[in-house]
């Protein structure tokens, strides 16, 4: 098993004018700020070989994971396997933080 270490401190801000998906850091784990307007969604897709943590910072999102849909409110955190179909749909203007880590 190999270990990855961060050799320097990196800092990013979640506030700002960025729209859509903004990658916060280079390298692993992949860290993304996701913003969706009310009524916007991302089509079903997969992230094979990844464990995903989804933190809803604001708004409301119906997150479909395979055949299950989970309704999220601000502060909710879910962890799931990226090998299944994933589709977030915002029911209000929303912002989330996603961490996608290699499951290998």
From TrEMBL:
Biased composition range(s): Basic and acidic residues: 8-26
Q: Where is this region: Disordered?
A: 1-26
Q: Where is the Cupin type-2 domain?
A: 34-98
What is this protein called in UniProt? Cupin 2 barrel domain-containing protein
Q: Which organism is it from?
A: Haloarcula amylolytica JCM 13557
């Amino acid at each position: 098993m190999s270990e990855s270490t961060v050799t320097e401190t990196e800092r990013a801000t979640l506030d700002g004018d960025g729209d859509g998906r903004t990658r916060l850091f280079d390298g692993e784990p992949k860290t993304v700020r996701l913003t969706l307007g009310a009524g916007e969604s991302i089509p079903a897709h997969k992230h094979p070989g990844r464990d995903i943590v989804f933190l809803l910072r604001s708004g409301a999102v119906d997150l479909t994971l395979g055949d299950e849909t989970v309704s999220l409110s601000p502060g909710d955190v879910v962890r799931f396997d990226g090998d299944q179909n994933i589709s977030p749909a915002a029911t209000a203007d929303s912002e989330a933080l996603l961490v996608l880590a290699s499951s290998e």
